Amino acid sequence: MTEYNDLIFEISQPGRTAFSLPESDVPSVELTTKFPKQLIREEPAELPEVSEPQLMRHYTSLSTKNFGVDNGFYPLGSCTMKYNPKINEDVARYAGFAAIHPFQPIETVQGAFELLYELQEDLQVISGMDAITLQPAAGAQGEWTGLMMMKAYHTKNGHRTSRTKVLVPDSAHGTNPASAHAAGFDVVEIPSNSNGTVDLVELKKQVGEDTAGLMLTNPNTLGIFEKDIVEMAEIVHQAGGLVYYDGANLNAILGQTTPGMMGFDIVHLNLHKSFSTPHGGGGPGSGPVGVKEFLIPYLPVPRIEKQKDQYVLNTDYPDSIGRVKGYYGNFGVNVRAYTYIRTMGPKGLRQVSESAVVHANYLRKKLEPYYATPYTQYSKHEFVLSGSRQKKIGVPTMNIAKRILDFGYYAPTVYFPLIVDEAMMIEPTETETKETLDAFADVLIQIAKEVEETPEVVLNAPHTTSVRRLDEVKAARQLIVKYTK
Ligand SMILES: *Cc1c(COP(=O)(O)O)cnc(C)c1O
């Protein structure tokens, strides 16, 4: 029979599997530098003492203060808020990935570079490009990186001062014109036609010898596929410009077609959108950029390359735009995206776009009788409704968005794209069930009825969230970012 004292001994025995962590295969780094004496404490620091339950409650409470894909449906159009599979997190925590340092000699971290190299190759195939850089930390930084390459290309060809204009459709995400400005270009807006696609006549009018390039999202931010894309690319190419693909909507075409096939020269992808890595409160993200062969000399350095069986960093690209981010991009995010691509496989990735598109069209059809639908053709992975009917009877779209929160959902993107009055942009993504889509549709239908029958309920929403209705003007004018009880 086990004695009481034996029991204690058993539990505290070292080496028991329940308490031991897996061993790291990373060479340990010895702390050889001694700290200067005057920097070493004489007394131990006075650190707060808290019990495990206090600590647990603190962090658990913090974890519930925000809304995310792990606690509910998040139909935020354009952002692709899909579920982040937890296997990605497991893999990102392997000691061989999590416990390495970017300053380690490259021979000691060959496995990490193998992963980055293979991720580059996978993204190359997925985007139809000839080379990829993993450096940019977000889509917007990818845009800027791509535009700097566009500029370097025109400079090399003697058109630095003549090709000053970047064409951007009026349905574009705000980062497109912003990135073009930041890269030193002038922005020319191209209007959309009544189908919600780029007007070719307008495009032809604007394209000329001063065109540096065109930036385009396809499907565009209305969720509509630009079916004239090949012709558009030709028009711009014939005028000597380049064509840039904003890959934020890749979820709609994964495994079906590629920006390369559509004629694009430069592409950015948003790994935190299409490839299921966390959006995490503004970062870190990853916005790899792909280019066609003729632009490879301009890619950021160092380039991760394979020479014989070794992965190496190559900086020998004299025409490179230089480094755009420290180290090699957001490594942990890239590990997650790699895990996602490898667990899904080619078939799985194709299924993503099929389901994302079916889900969006299903939801759009259910909601069409209740909200104005400016574009009624089949959408891709997202669609845009208008709250114009509700606005006419006194309830603007912002109130509808706030009322949605009462039902435990995040609100759709509102007032974007700018070309749709009272826009509500909904992207369900492929990771939601039919039950979730039905329940969300029921809520939007109920709200449409409330607007007609009991508008004050919608006008005073939200009613159930911990933060009641904000005074938005005051919040903008007297910004207090400090937490107060
Ligand atoms: C999200 C988004 C961007 C910007 O990407 P970030 O990763 O947020 O910087 C650009 N274009 C479109 C269409 C987007 O949806």
Automatic annotation (TrEMBL):
The keyword Iron does not apply. It catalyses: N(6)-[(R)-lipoyl]-L-lysyl-[glycine-cleavage complex H protein] + glycine + H(+) = N(6)-[(R)-S(8)-aminomethyldihydrolipoyl]-L-lysyl-[glycine-cleavage complex H protein] + CO2. Keywords: Oxidoreductase, Pyridoxal phosphate. One of its GO terms (molecular function) is pyridoxal phosphate binding. Residues 353-455 form the Glycine dehydrogenase C-terminal domain. Pfam families: GcvP2_C (PF21478), GDC-P (PF02347). Its EC number is 1.4.4.2. Gene3D superfamilies: 6.20.440.10, Aspartate Aminotransferase, domain 1, Type I PLP-dependent aspartate aminotransferase-like (Major domain). The modification N6-(pyridoxal phosphate)lysine is found at K273. PANTHER family: GLYCINE DEHYDROGENASE (DECARBOXYLATING), MITOCHONDRIAL, GLYCINE DEHYDROGENASE, DECARBOXYLATING. This is Probable glycine dehydrogenase (decarboxylating) subunit 2. It comes from Carnobacterium alterfunditum.
